[in-house]
Amino acid sequence: MRTSQSQGAPHREQGALVRENWLARQTRIISALMIREMTTRFGRDGLGFAWIVLEPMTFCIGVLILWSLTKPAYEHGIRLQAFSLTGYMCIILLRHMISYSFSAIQANIGLLHHRQVKPLHILISRNILELGGATATFIFVYVALLGVGLIEIPANFLLTYCGWLMMAWLGLGMAILMTGLAMRFEPIERVVGLLTYLLVPLSGAFFMIAWLPPKAQEIMLLIPFPHATEMLRAGVFGPFVETHYDWFYPLAWGMGLNLIGLLLVASSRDQIDVE
Predict the structure, then answer these.
(1) Residue 187: how many CB atoms within 10 A of its CB?
(2) In a 10 Å sphere around its CB, with 0-12 CB exposed, 13-18 middle and 19+ buried, how is residue 9 labelled?
(3) Residues ≥6 apart with Cβ < 8 Å to 176
(4) Which of 101, 130, 187, 227 is the most exposed place for a label (fewest CB within 10 A)?
(5) Where are the domains of the chain?
(6) What three-state secondary structure class fits 158?
(7) In sequence order, what DSSP letters do the residues of 235-255 get, joined into one string?
């Protein structure tokens, strides 16, 4: 019995070493693709890689200034800047993850000559970049508004993180799904822009579910995106602001979107012309 156990130990150690080497290899590939993407998109001159944060920041600050000049200071008892920041950053995250992903395969098709590089590596690297840039922008603008007294410290940090990551989870699913569809059906590329605009009202970014009539609330809560937005706002505003969300609903939707997207990408691998 001792001999059997002693023989099994090296096999377990070898299996652990193989898994560790596989993970390290995937990490190196994705890291290299991220650096290449930042260099290709933003270059090394001037501000360079800083544009991964500055690009979404300019849009966000522009919207905040515009809304501050054209709207009242409070919306249904919620300070305007806090409301617009939590909503518009969700839109930026969704739109950037989808827009910069669906054409990623074709834009980097030459990289697929390398046997180790797979379409999924390209998609993951792009989405990590967009998530990182949007997150850094959110934190920077939030801290700036906090410093001038236009927003309060989040009432529940964990819920705030969960709402933000839930939106990223849905954005990743939509990005992979649209990529898989674009690989199979060329006309999809022409409707992605329209889809990202439709996400503006469908995300619940510029209204709270509690502001809607009961029937409209039921309809909006059938869409997964408002759940993530409401979750984020529940974490920022606390229990004194009425929010409506179910954490499991967008989680399940994200799982479905990612699974279908991955199956589409995998089954469309032969549609890619790497010649």
Answers:
(1) 8
(2) exposed
(3) 101, 123, 257, 258, 261, 262, 264, 265
(4) 187
(5) 56-271
(6) helix
(7) HHH-TTS-----THHHHHHHH
pLDDT-derived band of residue 12, with 50, 70 and 90 as boundaries? low
> Long-range CB contacts (< 8 A, 24+ apart) of 195-201?
195/98, 196/94, 196/95, 196/98, 196/99, 199/91, 199/94, 199/95, 199/98, 199/225, 200/91
Cβ burial, residue 232 (10 Å; 0-12/13-18/19+):
buried
Q: From CA 12, how far away is CA 143, in angstroms rounded?
A: 48
Find residue 79's DSSP bridge partners. Answer: 74
Q: What is the pTM of this model?
A: 0.85
Measure Cα distances from 157 to 95, 147, 162, 237, 275 in Å.
24, 18, 9, 11, 49
Query: Tens digits of per-residue pLDDT, 18-44?
Result: 566 878 888 888 888 888 887 877 666
Query: Alpha-carbon distance 74 to 78, whole Å?
Result: 5
Give the per-residue pLDDT at 15. Answer: 59
Residues in the chain, total? 275
CB 201, CB 124: distance < 8 Å: no
CB 203 within 8 A of CB 168: no
Residue 212, helix vs strand vs coil: coil
Calculate the alpha carbon distances from 219 to 206, 211, 216, 232 in Å. 16, 13, 5, 20
